Batch of 4 targets.
Target 1
Amino acid sequence: MDLKMAGKVAIVTGGVQGIGRAVVETLLSEGVKVVIADRNAEKGAAVEKEFKQSGQQVAFIAAEMIKPDDIEAMVQFAVDTFGSLDYAVNAAGYAIPNMKLVDVKYDDLVQMVMVDAVGVYLCCQYEIKQMLKQDTPCAIVNFSGNSGIVGSSAGLAGYSMSKHGVVGLTRSAALEYARTNVRVNAVCPGVTETEAVAGTRKSFPEIYQQMVDRIPIGRTGKPEEIAKAVTFLLSDASGYTTGAAFVLDGGHTAA
Ligand SMILES: NC(=O)c1ccc[n+]([C@@H]2O[C@H](COP(=O)([O-])OP(=O)(O)OC[C@H]3O[C@@H](n4cnc5c(N)ncnc54)[C@H](O)[C@@H]3O)[C@@H](O)[C@H]2O)c1
């Protein structure tokens, strides 16, 4: 299927590694110009160099996704560098597994909720503000997770709360802007083999194994599998879809 995305401009937050990076690669393969935004400036510069060496249209900006000034600057950077903002993928986020609800420290909880929920809200705010200035079809994909659909017993209550919040934010933003040029959807991946999950596998092997054992399809997800769904949700091929929470979890939430 020709998704007709060539020449469009995207921002991918959390794009230097993991699923975000796979999204960057997939969008580049469709001819999209991509701004990668991430708090990891060192790795970001290396990734930008790597893609540019292969002739790709990418630009990196260091940004902390809980700082409104950074997020506003990120959107302006995309417009200044590539001329518009057609797509945004808000993938920056993290989970600390094994954080039992009764033990979690206030500062750790607030920091995580700020990045995983409030940061996504702020990204939508500045991205939509820019998209409304354009009269072309624009789309946003927010990263929730299957813990945004069901609960988890792996010490992930704060994470799950944030990811449920992302689904609520996505549905509300989609409805608020349904009659404009902006569509807003969410993806809800299950366990996907990224650097973050490799950390869980190493530090909490039992929790990792429990999570894998619960996947009906019998395996974890690959970042490219999530990236393809994100790309479809950004493209006009999904033009009738807004406010969706698209689950990709090997059947976990169906069980
Ligand atoms: N991997 C999974 O199993 C899984 C499952 C469900 C949902 N998700 C979600 O998918 C997204 C990507 O996950 P991943 O596994 O690829 O993670 P990852 O840790 O491999 O990569 C996340 C990237 O986001 C960046 N980042 C984190 N906090 C940031 C902040 N405050 N400001 C700017 N950049 C920040 C990191 O530097 C990193 O480059 C996350 O939102 C995660 O919650 C992942």
Note: The first strand starts at residue 9 and ends at 13.
Target 2
Amino acid sequence: MKKVLAFDIDQTLNVAKTPITDDIASLLLQCLDHFEVCPISGQKFDQFLIQIVDRLPHPTEEQLSHLHLFVAQGTQYYRHEDGEWKQIYNYPLTDEQVKKISETIEKSARELGYWEEDKLQAGDEIIENRLSQVTFSALGQKAGTEEKYAWDPDHKKREQIVARCKELAPEFDYEIGGTTSINAITPGMNKVFGMTHLLEELHVKKEDILYFGDMTQPGGNDYPVVQMGIDTITVRNHEDTAYALRGILGVI
Ligand SMILES: [Mg+2]
């Protein structure tokens, strides 16, 4: 019997960068009665609240105490204590690392003709400093879902950008995630880092965890979890996840 359900967010719990559906919210709430629940994603803390926590229908303090937020690929960890979210740890990038990564991604995307500045909405940006990682979002954060899906459905554009980034700044790791994103991190600061800290913080073993992700193929941002030997369910979308969760909750 698993003790922990861990989830990628983008395309696993939601449609990338949007709040989870009522269905997923209700299923997650039920999961909190039986499991430690750990969303882990490259996104920022405020997005965890908007996309997941705020969508849960009337969670109790007891239920929230079983929700563990592994922000920015688990380089930041938040837990709910005494009625509020508390940051338990944080491992940020240095200013120099952020600058080097940002310049590298911009140069690579420009060379390849994938720097789509003209398509950005007002106030939006392509490269975002998420403290523990730098994220490239080809069309910015605010672009519509359909537009994002259409930009790089086969990952080919991002694979080219990543290949060029690796030539220019091989000291960093680049992972493809979401629909238009590339996350740049220092080696080891991927989901392995987050999952390793999860094991420590929750005092559990690898075998206690079941992980859900949509990018479990080599090069995808969920693949490091597979490589760790953690049991993984590969989903195409949140409907697949809901289906699997119904199965799990149905046999408890
Ligand atoms: Mg994903």
Note: Residues 95-112 form the longest helix (18 residues).
Target 3
Amino acid sequence: MDNLSLHIPVLLNEVVEAINPQDGKTYVDGTFGAGGYSKEVLNKANCKLIAIDRDPNVKKSVDAMGKAFGERFEFVAGRFGDMKSCLSSIGQNKVDGIMLDIGVSSMQIDEAERGFSFRFDGPLDMRMSASGETAADIVNNMPEKDLADLIYKYGEEKNSRRIAKAIVARRAEKPFETTKELKEIIHSVSKKPVNGIDSATRTFQALRIAVNDELGELERALSASQELLNDGGILAVVTFHSLEDRIVKNFFKDKCGLGPRPSRYLPAAIEETPLFEGKNKAVTAKEEEIKLNPRARSAKLRYAIRKYGVREAGALNHGEV
Ligand SMILES: C[S@@+](CC[C@H](N)C(=O)[O-])C[C@H]1O[C@@H](n2cnc3c(N)ncnc32)[C@H](O)[C@@H]1O
């Protein structure tokens, strides 16, 4: 663990600027990792920071933060998709900002034992938390058609049918155990890198998303944020690929009232009141950051401010709609 490269936070200044930490307020870092965002927020204001992570290996960084910031820092082990219950387990029902930095950390990728990367040989695992179905369980048991669909949907891999077929033929002889075995089978049917990207990349991404239910987690967290944020609270989300960004973009488009307007024949009272305010424009990393940290190249930050509308001000409560 000590040899692992420490995670360099991506779009750190931009995220903290968006969150705009204030004294006396409470913020959530739903993807604690090595604590880069959490630390910066706590340094910016005399505020409280509640961190969540599903990976038991973050303990060392959690302990260091506890020592540095005392009671201003609190950690809850869990998934950000369950943010509401994570927060209520420590008596917190409302917060003033939520940050999410979706995906895997450098520590997770660089640890061969975790099985996230085909750059190292390791068990075909890919679980961020230490429990549940592994990537090996999926490739060894899923019916061929479902496997092809999964690789196509989550990996956006055009060769998905051919790869799934090769996986199923290979597992009939011997079940997959390692990242190297899987990489070799993918290379056997689609060897050439596409645009400089290794042909195993998309399949590995698809399996990782499925193992950790990454898109479902994101959708649940976005939805929960509406209820958890105080009026004026900020939701800031950093994503690393188009599947995630599409979910965040559509969420903000809808919730900021930037989508197509409902029919003008609908009574005004039943038009949806926007729940967030923001331009829904993606913030990307500057060249200097990308030079220092190539991982930042694909990062996109979107953020918006929670606004309490007419409905929440009481219209619904009084049965007037
Ligand atoms: C990209 S890293 C975050 C790095 C962090 N911003 C920093 O500055 O160190 C993502 C972290 O989020 C965690 N994570 C990913 N999905 C999660 C989920 N659904 N619930 C809780 N933690 C999650 C991972 O375990 C990982 O530690």
Note: The chain has two domains: 12-106+214-315, 130-211.
Target 4
Amino acid sequence: MIKFTITSTKGGVGKTTLTANLGALLADMGLRVLLIDADVQPSLSKYYPLSATKPVAGLTELMVRGEMTPACITPTIYRNLDLVVSDDPEGHLPHWLMNRIDRGFRLRVALQSPLVADAYDCVLIDTQGAVGSLQDAAVMAADLLISPITPEILSAREFRDGTMELLHRLEAARALGVPLGPMKAVITRQDRTSDARLIASGIREDFARLSDRVCVLETVVPHAKAYKEAATLRVPVHRHEPRRHGVTPSAYAVMHELAWELIPGLRGVHAGLNSFRERMA
Ligand SMILES: Nc1ncnc2c1ncn2[C@@H]1O[C@H](COP(=O)(O)OP(=O)(O)OP(=O)(O)O)[C@@H](O)[C@H]1O
Ligand SMILES: [Mg+2]
């Protein structure tokens, strides 16, 4: 099982869009996927239709009990794709968590439960775009951090400073023996202006120089209306845009490249076709 946390110290960069679409693609490739909505604003919880009319429980039970229970998991209408909903609209959970001595480890430990470890191949955790105890717990639960970054100058600077601060702050966890996952930055919502391309290459150079803990992925998610449309229709974007004419690659192609770069063992596996499980059989 591999656990990804999608994080950024900046809001609105495309975390939820990426979590939902990557999760659904991996599920369509045949992996058993659990999405966890660890944002108190429950965007991921509403992204796809759920197969149950009302979830029984969600993130609150998971965090307060410190273990996974069947009630915390709600299936979506898509095969292989389940969800732990965010059910804390008033934001009590981050405050509750802040006062716990084990706040950093609680989600990490909860995900070691057989209900997760034996039932899923991949867990994706979406986080809020602000520093807080819930975000720290999600970061510390991950094997790998994925951080979308938009190629605008202010946002790139904020990303660099915010990320360095986050990594620095969580160094304390490493001192306690928790291995902090490496961070893969994904340039996302890149438009076709030369300015965006220039900033994107600046981001790559910056991180090559600044940190060996962060690398910038080759795959770039373009700014394209398919991502918004798919969210409105509540379908995975690789299904919504299987092919496309013109220079911008289709969402199907982009999302596959991204999944393959993140999990190299999946290269060659496509959604719906020669799925991962059939290959392993
Ligand atoms: N590649 C893309 N092309 C065009 N629009 C996009 C793309 N990715 C995301 N968006 C749009 O950008 C907006 C913000 O995306 P999203 O909600 O995923 O960001 P977020 O980082 O999760 O925000 P928050 O910090 O508020 O949780 C949404 O309207 C979404 O549809
Ligand atoms: Mg979000």
Note: The first strand starts at residue 2 and ends at 6.
